[in-house]
Design brief:
Blueprint: H1 4-16, H2 19-26, E1 39-43, E2 56-60, H3 61-69, H4 72-79, H5 83-87, H6 90-105
Antiparallel strand pairs: 1-2
């Protein structure tokens, strides 16, 4: 039987991968506003629906709130983007993470 602490670590790894990856994503500009402060690791596929660290896009905390709470039409009017176009960028950021790891660590990740 695994302890609560072990389960928590396993969930964190699945949803965020590592503290280093969280920091990397937080260092990216917001996908919607270009802001560089208060960046959230916003899951584009909910964790409850099986979303992992591969489904994350950097969003300013207010843009993240809007993404989660606004209807499609209101969101598109405010940001000039569809929610799906934002979701589609998760793959780009996952690739950027792999490039960062290769450049900073000198090796590629096998995932």
């Amino acid at each position: 039987m695994t302890s609560k602490s072990e389960r928590k670590k396993k969930r964190f790894k699945k949803h965020f991968y590592s503290v280093e990856r969280v920091r990397f994503m937080a260092s990216q500009p917001c996908e919607l506003t270009g802001k560089l402060c208060s960046i959230h690791n916003a899951h584009m596929k909910s964790r409850g629906a099986g979303g992992t660290y591969k489904h994350v896009v950097p969003l300013h905390f207010l843009a993240h709130k809007d993404f989660d709470e606004m209807g499609k039409e209101k969101f598109e009017k405010k940001y000039g983007r569809t929610k799906q176009s934002v979701r589609d960028r998760a793959e780009y950021y996952h690739e950027q993470w792999k490039v960062y790891c290769h450049q900073s660590r000198g090796y590629s990740l096998a995932y």
